[in-house]
Amino acid sequence: MADIMRLTQRLRGLDASRLVPLVRTTPTILKYLAALVFILNIRSWPLGWHFRIFRPAIMRRLQHRILKLRTMFYSQDRQARLEDEWYDSISPIGSNPMDTVILYKAWASLDESDFNGHLSNSSYAKTLDAARFKSAIVMFPNLFREQGWIPLAATHYHFIREIPMLAVYEIRSRIVAWDQKWFYIVHRFVTKPKKGTKHASEKTKRAGTPPATILPSLRTVSGPEESSSAPSPTPADTYADKTKATLRSVSNIISAEEPDGATLHTITVSQLCFKIGRITVPPELIFAINGFTAHSSPSPDTPFSHSNLPPHMEEVRKLNTGRGGRKSMGAFLKGGWRQVPEGERWWEQAFEGLRERNERNLAEVEQLKKGLEGSRGLEVHGSS
Q: Which residues neighbour 196 within 8 Å (Cβ) at sequence distance 6 or greater?
């Protein structure tokens, strides 16, 4: 009671005029704090994820709309020709699908980082959605022209080192393999070295030693070093071996170092396919209609490009401008390609030069897929 009385006397002695400004400014301070928190989490605003995902598509739509407005008073034939030329200009004509790298730049914002000060695990998938969508828009514009889409079947992650909060990083996406239904894209999360710093390969070259692999933990011992008296494998051992093969397959596909000395943080493999409506379209066919090729130009001085088209683009032009117009391409993608005899499939011939490389990479990614799918049996064996 004595303490309460003393506190009451002190409050009575305070000048009320000094408390008024404090009371008046308190709501303002709270407003500024609320606004600051809101701004710091700007990337997580409502519809913020959708904007990041669809930004490349929105830009393409705007460009296409501007083209339509500019040509609205031309004849239909000229409009169609100019539209075809515009699609050609944004297509990767003459490029090798396995050597084409699409960059997506991002940064580890506060709202996407965890309590350890690193990019959170969930943010990798969130950012990867945007990187995949940008890659699709850049590499396959003619697929979307035919109202096609690209469903995602699986994503495999391998975390190597963390990405610090506020760090600027980029995702480098590249097609590595395909079969008659699926194609696989490898995404590499990297950060570039700061100016004036030397990356590992330069240091090891100066020291006279070979560069160490960035993925040493993915290598497994095989051959003579294995013990011949090892016990019979149990189900757990079998799945452990599959896990090792899974990790080894990733390291075999991807080189240990980035060509520009960037630091590799995470490797991701996406398994996807192409569809027109509910119909699955072979990856090589979609690659071909977008101008990709494995052929080399007869003249090294004039590589394949928009002005020097690959041989198979003549067939693509026939489908685009032949009898039936755009409907011919749509009908061909929806199943007309099945009527073409095996030896005459020009879209497969366009990638003959990549057959061996693709088969080698495909064996690795399929091992990755089988290894992870094999883990489904772990719970069953563990419960028995």
A: none
